[in-house]
Amino acid sequence: MALEHYWVEHSPNTKQVRDFLKKWHYSDYVNIQHKETFTLWKSGNFGFPSLVGVCIYTRPAGPAAANKYWPSNPTQCLELRRLCLIDDTPKNAESYFVSRTLKWLKVNSNWEYVISYADPEQGHSGVIYKAANFTYGGVTGEGSKLEVDGEIKHIRSLTMTDRPYGQELSRRYKNGDPGIKIIKTKGKHIFTYKVCRRKS
């Protein structure tokens, strides 16, 4: 199906969005604090729309990143935190989706700068961002991920001690449980994009 049958919407971060991410994204961490959320749709059976992608922008994970890459106004810096499409989409659907979200930000928001990361641990090199005219910014330092009983979890799960699940993970890790491991990961590729708002 050609991309003319696809469209992008600026959307609230609904349960439908979170359920989609939980099903299709490799990370199980979906309760992120979104600032801008977008959905990608296509015409489905009998003309009903079908959700096929989600893109979420948040504040950068740490204030240091915003201060480093956009020091002139770090509060107006976003991070493209989640980009997730179902497998059955055209080859260029991801770059199409990201480009449309950036266009929306230019026209409808005061955001000035976007940071994103491509994770080589997941086989990502940043082809999507290059196609969407992001600038390559090198590689971050090493990261880490959490392995729980053979399953990969987000590293933040270990510090969520305000939740029963996080408390249990923290307790097991502190007690030396061999089922809880912190694994070093490769650095991520950094990509940045300057949002140039259109003049009215």
Chain-wise SSE layout:
Layout: E1 6-11, H1 15-24, E2 34-43, E3 49-58, H2 63-69, E4 77-85, H3 93-108, E5 113-118, H4 127-131, E6 135-139, E7 143-148, E8 151-153, H5 164-174, E9 180-185, E10 189-194
Q: What can you see in these coordinates?
A:
By secondary structure, this protein is of the alpha+beta class. The protein has 5 helices and 10 strands. It has one domain: Gcn5-related N-acetyltransferase (GNAT) (Aminopeptidase, 3-Layer(aba) Sandwich). The strands form 2 sheets. It has a 7-stranded mixed sheet, with helices on both faces. It is globular and about 55 Å long. The model has no long low-confidence stretch (mean pLDDT 89).
In short:
The chain has 200 residues and is an alpha+beta fold. It has five helices and ten strands; from the N terminus they run E-H-E-E-H-E-H-E-H-E-E-E-H-E-E.
